[in-house]
Amino acid sequence: xxxxxxxxxxxxxxxxxxxxxxxxxxxxxxxxxxxxxxxxxxxxxxxxxxxxxxxxxxxxxxxxxxxxxxxxxxxxxxxxxxxxxxxxxxxxxxxxxxxxxxxxxxxxxxxxxxxxxxxxxxxxxxxxxxxxxxxxxxxxxxxxxxxxxxxxxxxxxxxxxxxxxxxxxxxxxxxxxxxxxxxxxxxxxxxxxxxxxxxxxxxxxxxxxxxxxxxxxxxxxxxxxxxxxxxxxxxxxxxxxxxxxxxxxxxxxxxxxxxxxxxxxxxxxxx
Length: 271
Prior knowledge:
The chain is of the alpha+beta class. The chain has three domains: about 45 residues; about 45 residues, no CATH class; about 130 residues, no CATH class. It is built from twelve helices and seven strands. The strands form two sheets. Strands 4-5-1-7-6 form a five-stranded antiparallel sheet. The longest helix is centred in the last third of the chain and has 22 residues. The C terminus is likely disordered.
């Protein structure tokens, strides 16, 4: 089953907002005509071509999350090209997949290398899917284990923040607001459980051992094993920082995955 996740959305280039909205409005009108027209209508192919052109123009006005954080790109920045050769091209050759170097570079030119991004570990989440965008799994918070850990009222409050009014699209401002709310909730829980050190555990461990970043993503720490309380709180802090980080960069969030139960969608956020 597909995991319930947040995906960071592209943002409109500064100063291009009006142009983007105009193109979107034209595209929506044209799509409405296409969807209600006879497929044999003489002008239908031309309208579909125009619609595809509008999509391309809209895409050209957008900034992807990985460009926002200036991810090095293969074939453009030397460090990204070197990374691709060492981690993709050479291993492929050793496995018997012999592709000419110029063809390999041509195919991947412009592709951002998220592994070289200089941002906090939890900000990237997981880069996956066709969108090639930072993704954060939030299905964890909907689980029965999460319900048992937080208790009915605490769990409802948490889900209320995550899925207020069944909101599946959040603007950058709403992402920041969500991140702030989750941070406050996590701080309060950490204090009540006397595990306030969880708030800074990632920073402290990465500073002590930069090679541990991959392990941090899986809650596996070389120094010690986290308790269940610390794992849940760390997940809350990660979700909060993920939402806040991208919101402050001007990117919104889209929730994707299996539908959330109706009773969860109806829970309101308590302030």
